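Field reference: sequence -> structure
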Amino acid sequence: MISEQEKRMLGLERQWWKYAGAKDEAITEQLAMSAVAYYQALNRLIDTEAALAHDPMLVKRLRRQREARHRARATRR
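Structure field:
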């Protein structure tokens, strides 16, 4: 089971497009976290089975995006 804060994090990711260039600001306002702390917590969260059970499509998309970023970084090296 995921916490209310984690549910809010996934909700923010589900509707990221609403925040245009102000996503970091929305993170601070809605979750009272710095952007760095948010992304660290989000990466831990999407690796959990509880998050996958809560919103499978979103978590799988976030995992794919993360993996694509890792692959892109690896090919630049």
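Note: The longest helix spans residues 56-76.
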